[in-house]
Amino acid sequence: MDRRVSLATRSVRVLIPDQLPTLFEPQKSVMTPHVRARVVGDEDDAAPPERRLTMLALQLAVLEKAASRLGTLGFIWATVVLLGGFAITLGQTDFWCITTLLLVEGARILGRSHELEWQHETTGRAPVSWAVGRVFHWLQLLSASSCAALSLVRLVHQRYGGSEEARVNRHSALDIFYGLALAEALLFLVEKALWQWRVDHHLLLERVASDCHLATACGAVAVRRFFYDSYSRCLNGSIFDGLHMDLVSYADDLLTAGSHDEQRLGASILAALVESDRFADATLRKIGTSGPAIERLIEMLSWKNASEKDVRRSAAVVVFMLTGRKVNALRVTGIPGAMESVASLLYADLDELNLLGLSILNKLARDHDHDNCDKIGKTRGLLDRIISYSGIVANGPAAGPPTDMRLKAVKQSLRVVKRLASTTGTTGKLLRRELSDIVFTVSNVREVLQQQHDEKDVSELHRLAIEILTNLAMDEEAREMIGGTGGVLSTLVAMFLPEKQEAAPDRHKDAVRVEAGEALAMLALDSRRNCGAIIMAFGGGVERLVEALSDPVVVVSAARILRNLCTYAGDEWQLTPRGVTAGATKVLRSIMVEKTKLLNISLGLAAQMLRFMQPGELRASLATAGVTNAALARTLVLVLREYSRPSLEVPHIRLYTLELAIALMRSDARFVALFVELGMEAEQRRVAETTSGLECFNVFSGSVGLSRRAVSVGSLVDSATELMRQHACGTLQSQSHRYAEK
């Protein structure tokens, strides 16, 4: 259960903020090969365990065929030479011995064929059936033993009777016949002894079943039938026919061409093999290329009979493992009705099947596969059913803590929803709209966020829930709906800046804090109502956010939230200048020393902070930070020079730099002269010539821009250029006046 259902969880790392990927930067689609981790060892080149069965079947078949050929030769010799040529001269004793041997041997051969058929048909059935097989077994042993004893006695006695002349050829003919009969009987007894020694004494079938992870009642039946079929093929055709058999191909044949019971047996064999680290790769490679087998497995997922739960589970396990490879996942979803069959697992009255169904959907939705995600979204009632498993409180708010199985179901449900919500392009936009339209989506996520049990498990649940909110919030209507759901914003704020800080670093909680910060930044984007609610959740001000600018774990998120609050909150919230500008020194210092993402958001935040600062406050902040006007102006020019083209990693850095430059020039005219002296106008022209759609959007879904910015880079370049020209005109006029006065 652990291997097939417990998917590999995303590793939790304390990432440097500059390296943390977010939705505020575009992501290029990269084709990466899917490589399954394997442990290379001696077992990789070893023969599969069932090879021991096929080798035994070969050995037994050689003995059986040799005995049969000797029996055939003896029968021909007796009928043609002895009874045909010497019938009149044979003694009475030899006549009846020959007749008895022929009848007994004929009966043994007939019984042997029926014994094999009976063993094959009754494998795994009631002990009344097993007893019949044992009767056939002992009858053959008795007949072979009697034939061997009778032949040996006649050979030892050598009393064939008749005259000396009559005994010349007849004596040799009888010796040959009895010798053939004895050899045949002995070969058969050797075969039986080998069978008993390897199968019964050394428990070969049980050991092979254990090695193949089939050490169950059903698995034992499967291994025994495989052995009997291999032996039958060696007998009925070439002795090497059974040697080429393997359990995977055998299970494939049972699935596609067998009866209902044989299909169940085939599914159980495949389930056991794919759950084994040793055999999973080879099994999946073979089954992945068998279209009929995959179709039958998909069909089994929708079997509804109560007695078919086990086979349904086996089929679900195999399909789950198959979908771990993208090529196989495409084959699965290409089968008509496949998604409906997978969806049927979510309606089963067995928790394990529900969990397997969610796990399969999670695999199908991986890598944001547009086709699969689109099929999931279009399957009737499937999204609602997936969301229903995300409710962590199953029996109302008064219920006790959720069970382990419930937590697993919630986790898998959140994983599926997260992957659907993060799908890019038009498909992702439609899926996010459909998910947010389901009235239980956000409320279920809120319940998950409010859980405070086992730290490790709850941290992963919290991260998944927060990532869902962040992705859904890319849609403007969903953003407002999430913000209007009671308790969501306050819970995110509490997670982002908890009242009680841990003494020792906790990477799980730090990861949750970072995710919560990104969610708050997304919810504050272009939403005046959400900005107001976030400010109230922080206690009616932004002082705590300003303090968080000194926290290396969440500094980027804190700066992004604070910038969005300053940009979109509106004048009615009366953000206090002291509260906003208290962090100006830290932000200005970051502009001078930081790189990439932290530099990017510091530039954007500084531009918004200047709206709340008087020229004197700006000069004081620069002095406290140890930054001169010239150094700051030079840094901004160098940023534009370094980013001569739009950057995927920091797509807004040029825009934020221009915003800050304009704010500085409007706040203090001395910055205009500095920018002119440092060649800012030439850098602005270069920026204007290299603008792209990358800089026109606030957030990105993959490579698709969302939430178009109201002010473009080009208009900012025009504004900055106009300020410089006005300053130049003012300078010329001032010089003209002074000249005129002189």
TrEMBL record:
Record field: transmembrane: 70-91
ARM repeat coordinates: 443-487, 540-565
KW Metal-binding (keyword) present: no
Domain of life: Eukaryota
Gene3D superfamilies: Leucine-rich Repeat Variant (1.25.10.10)
Record-linked InterPro entries: ARM-like (IPR011989), ARM-type_fold (IPR016024), Armadillo (IPR000225)
PROSITE patterns: ARM_REPEAT (PS50176)
Keywords, ordered alphabetically: Membrane, Transmembrane, Transmembrane helix
Name of the protein this chain belongs to: ARM repeat superfamily protein
Species annotation: Miscanthus lutarioriparius
Lineage of source species: Eukaryota, Viridiplantae, Streptophyta, Embryophyta, Tracheophyta
